[in-house]
Structure formats: structure tokens, C-alpha cells
Request: fold
Amino acid sequence: MSCKVLMSTTVGWISTARHAAGFALSGCRVECVAPADAPVRSSRYTSAWYPYRPLAGLASLRSAIRSAKPDLIVSCDDRATEFLVRLHEAEPDNSRIAQLISRSLGPPEQYAQVMSRDHSLRAARMLGVRTPETLPVGSETALDECLKLIGFPAVLKTDGSWGGEGVAIARDEQEAHSAFRRLAYPPSRLRSVARAVRRQDAHWLLSALAPQRRSVTVQRLVYGRPAASGFAAWEGEVVSAVYYDVLKADGPMGPPLVIRRTDCAEIADATRRIAKHFRLSGLHGLDFIRDEAGHVHLLEVNPRATQGGTLPFGSGRDLAAGLASCVMPGAQPRPAIPNDTVTFFPQEWLHNPESTYLEHSYHNVPWDDPRILRACLQHAHVPSPAEPLQSPDAGVPVPFARTLSQGPNCA
Reply:
């Protein structure tokens, strides 16, 4: 049997291309629906590309599915998941597109809860998963009542946000109210248009045309170290998973820079319970915080493929191979990474060229996908391998220059 996978993304994340490589190396044919400037479009592992148009999101997704005729759709960002759910609602129940979306995600009707921070964590608590107290906030008056229960510091979050955006830590009432107004209410139409131009992102034009208020929750702050799971599920059963602690992140709410794979019974148990309760299929992730006693607290559910899930750690820990095997029996995992500590390329070089992690971890440099390697460097605003490397005095970190000059043997 063969398996055709359609990667669906509305943003330009490098991780989508890494997931595409995983499925291709597992024996799948990989195609993508993505913006014109998304790196996944240029990956050597992507066989075909279908344009995603922000101002016609559902139409472009429907067109891509009809043209590609995939066996599975893999959602790579929250907005892409939202579009898949909306497309399912717009299709007749017996249509091929509706059945394909159900097969790829699990029951789409569950995703209203999955994508709501309040409802997903409420369900997790009912399942016995440890979570910090989280309350929905509908108004500034309600915020005051919630803060009496939560206390300070408090974390305010919006649904449908990612990458550290839509999150604020408030240390007093003034900061809490300021954060609530910023998160709950859409920016002015003029500001949305300005952002569309500055960021070259037409999604902000949609915000200008139809501004929408966003759901906000307030959550008790738990001190500790971030942790996460990336997992592949099929009809509610976890078929492959990677659990890890974040050793270093890009700021308090930013993505991980360095992680260490771990065997954690608490994370594994929470992952299985969440997957089974929502009958999930596809690639997903859970974010945790590990407190000083070593216990993990579930912070949120990510209803899409995550960066940590791109990493192959062998049989049962290769998400692409695990999911592919549900459709294509015999899919083989990629060779396991030879180190449980992984530095994501090239962010840690840029943050601290003297970091000890650079000497003692695995660096996930995409040597096998030159165009994605170039995209990594361009996104980080550093010289690409085709350009002459400047001297360290010109601003190129020594370990970074050394790695590029040595090639793939350095990792």
C-alpha cells in the first residue's frame, strides 16, 4: 500500500517542512497546501504544492484536497485546524472531503472543546490530569472576580493563539486589565491594515474587515520548567509519542531552543487520556510545566503538529512513521537521533554562541534538504551556505561557522 499525505499550513514555519521530510522518509508521497512563501513548498520531500490564499482560506483548502486526493491531511498550525473543522461543517456528511477530515483529525465536532483552553483543561481535570486553575473571562468585572480566586502572578491567554503570542503574565490588577483589553478586543482597523502591510500577512486584512472579539482565560501561574509531548494518534489511541523537557526557551513564553527527551509516566498518562477522550487522530502536542517536585501540570492542548514532533527517536518515537503505519502498514521509522538532548537549528547559535549545549547536543541541521537549510538561515538573518561566511568579528558565532564548514559530520 501507499500513502499520500497533504500537509496543510497557513504560516511559514520551518517545522512544516521537517514534518514533510519525516513522512517522505517513511515512504509516503507528500504534498502541501501552503502560502507561496512557505519553506515547505521548496522542500525536496514535497512532491506538489497547492496555493493557500488567506482571503479565500476555505476555498483554497477545498481545491487542494480535491486536486491532491490524499489519504491523510496533517494540520501544521492552529488556523489550519480551524479551517479543516469549518470545511467539514460546510460539507455533506457523506462527502469524501468530510470523511477524509474525520479520518485525519478524529471527530471534528470535538474540536470546539479541543481548541478552547477553558474546555480542554476542564476536560483534562475531569480525566484526572493535573492542571493549574483556569477560568474563562468574559469581561473586566469578571476578571476581577477570577483574580480573587487565581491570585498573582496570573497568566492571561486567548484561544487560537500560538508561538507565545496571545499570552501575557500579569503581576497586579493594572497589568491584568491592560492585558485583558489588549487580548480580548481586536485592534483598530487602521492598525490591522498597517500590520498586514508591515508583516506581509493578509490575515490582518480579514481582521480589519471583520474584527472579532477573542475568548480569554486567566490561569494560575505555576513555577517550573516547561515540558511537552508530541504524539501521533489514531482513533483515540496513541501510536507514537515523544516526551521532553525544555532546557532553554526563547523567552518566558517562546518556543524551545534546547530540549531533552525523557521517559515520563505522568506525561505519557496525560497524553493517552487526552487522546482517548477526544478520540484524536493525527499529530498533536501537549504543553506542560514541571514544578520543583517534578510533577507536571498540563497548560494547553495543541491541536496540530508541533516542533518537537519532528524529531525521530526510533521505533515508537517517530511520529510520522507511527501515523503513516496506520494507513500504510510497514512504514519504517527513521534512524534514531543519537542524543536525547537536541539543539534546534540555528536559534541557539544566535542566542549564545558560547552555549555549552552546542558542544554536547544533537543539532537538527537539515543537511539532507538544502533549500530548507537555506530557509533556516534566511529566517534567522544569517549567511547561507552558498554565501561566503564572514569572520567571527563580523558577527557570525564561531560554533555556527565551524558547524557549516564541517558539514553533516559535526552533529
Remarks:
- The longest strand covers residues 237-249.
- The chain has a mean pLDDT of 87.
- The radius of gyration is 21 Å.
